[in-house]
Amino acid sequence: MSRKLRTILHIALALAIPACNLRDAMTADVSVVARAGEQQLRVDDLAEMLASAKTVGLRPGIVEQWAQLWIDYSLFVQQMAGGDSLIDTGLVRRAMWFDIDSIRVDRFHTYLVDSLVEFDTAYVDSAFAAGEHRMLDIVLLETRADLAPPERAAKRGEADALRGRLAAGGSWDQAKVDYQKPGGGSRGGRVMVGSGTMSPELDPVAFALAPGEMSDVIETARGFYLLRRPALEEVREDYAWALQDTLVGRMQAQFLEDLPERWRVAVRGNAPALMREAVGQPYAAIGSGKTLGTYRDGKLTVGEFVRWLPVLGIHQQVGGASDEQLHDLVEALIRNEVLFHEADQRNIRITDEEFALIRERYAVRLDTLRRAMDLDVLLSAGGTTPDMRQRLLELSVMRYLSEIMQRRRQMVSVPPFLAEALRERQDWSVAPAALERTVEETRARRAELANMAPEGAAPPADASPQERGGGDDQ
Fold first, then answer.
1. What range defines the domain where residue 215 resides?
2. Is pLDDT above 80 for 29?
3. Domain check: are 64 and 139 in the same one?
């Protein structure tokens, strides 16, 4: 968790979508791999696209991901064709919930800081006098461990000479510049330190310095150090900011440490196994109510975990994570949920201005997607019947999907939580038997193409839509 109680803001490719209903899956025509509203994705059409994109993997799970992606794009296009701008307030709040809640958690952080810590002048002066946290000027004349004795002695002499110049009124700022690493890396500077946080050679010296006092040369494994503790009048503002950061960080750490006990957080023992299974079949798992963990008056389910995946962007990592790492992930997700509850309890909301900016960012994402799919041209085309225009839009989905497969275009996804909302508005389905048939048909077509390909051609890679897309609109 970051200093401002933020979780990851990046929203990745759309995996968060509800499972198709069982009736559709059981009655699906095996010549049709997916349906979206009134549209159909036929096995022959998908197999033709996959055969042409030779590096796309042919496991049924990957083929399903392409079919699900087709559903997202098709439902989006159908809404656009029907004149829905998809920017009504309710839909924006649903599609951009994480952005909204992140702002609320930031405001909750500010509330905590304001209510628990008062950084007035008297507090800063008292903290400086107590000396538990000290502002130090540091210069390091770095050496190597294998430095020969004569060279080490010369470096020590350089450090002694520098100390003499500084004691006579030389500039510490200039000394920091003179001994900065090539390329801008720092060998010193002005830092806030707490007792016991420095090396054994430096810590006792640093915490014996009076305000305005400079140390002797200190020899360590890294080289020769000079320390100085500036007087309060010299660093009051910097010290106040650094002290605030230090104490707020400590307060936040304690707040988060106490949170699991206050909210009675508990992670189920089988949570890691359920998470690995869910990532393997996210489209089915989105509807799962199986419990991963509980907290006071609530729980985190497998379905909710899958809905977090687009936010976290860790689909590939979950399969290889240890049980302990997945246990910690469940606890972190519950902690985030609890922080949202804490903000709710204090009636913390975003402002109208903040929501307007979020709506604007959301609208930009939709514009980016429309441009990527060339929808604006088709939607504004004159001289076409509604049926003809609908057919052109259908073809635009197929063309765009094919171009993504062949790496001719970067994938711009439908915002994941918008995709989820669109699936609730319209019927859709994927036929498992048709997935298997698509794999078989694609293999047969690729075999035919391989017979015509030159020797030494590269075999297909097991690429998913996420790996194929190479990015999102973020």
1. 131-237
2. no
3. no
* 247 within a domain of the structure (yes/no): no
| 363 and 414 both lie in a single domain | yes
Q: Specify the higher pLDDT residue, 386 or 435.
A: 435
Please indicate, yes or no, if residue 248 is contained in any of the structural domains.
no
Residue (of 259, 306, 311) closest to 284 by Cα position = 306
Q: Tell me the average pLDDT across 186-206.
A: 85
- What is the domain count for the chain? 3
- The Cα 408–Cα 370 span in angstroms is 17
CA 241, 242, 243 angle in degrees (round to 5)? 90
Higher pLDDT, 113 or 302: 302
Adjacent-strand bridge partners of 295: 298
- Predicted confidence (pLDDT) per residue in 72-96, tens digit: 999 999 988 888 889 999 999 999 9
CA 376, 377, 382: angle at the middle one, nearest 5? 115
> Does pTM top 0.70 for this prediction?
no
Q: How confident is the model at residue 61 (pLDDT cuts 50, 70, 90)?
A: confident
Same structural domain, 278 and 304 = yes
Query: How many whole angstroms separate alpha carbon 50 and alpha carbon 441?
Result: 10
- Nearest in space to 285 (alpha carbons), one of 16, 11, 14, 94: 16
State the pLDDT confidence band at 378, using cuts at 50, 70 and 90. Answer: confident
**CB distance 449 to 122 below 8 Å:** no
**Contact predicate 76/369, CB 8 Å:** yes
Is the domain of 381 the same as that of 455?
yes
Last residue of a domain, one of 345, 380, 395: 345
Alpha-carbon distance of 472 to 474, in angstroms, equals: 5
Q: Which two tokens stand for residue 426?
A: 């319209």
List, for residues 148-190, the tens digit of each pLDDT value. 999 999 999 999 999 999 999 999 989 888 887 654 444 558 8
Of 345, 363, 379, the residue at which a domain comes to its end is 345
> 336 and 373 share a domain?
no
The total of other beta-carbon atoms located within 10 Å of residue 398's CB is 17
Residue 102 lies in a domain: no
Question: For the residues of 156-180, what is the DSSP string, one character each?
Answer: HHHHHHHHHHHHTT--HHHHHHHTP
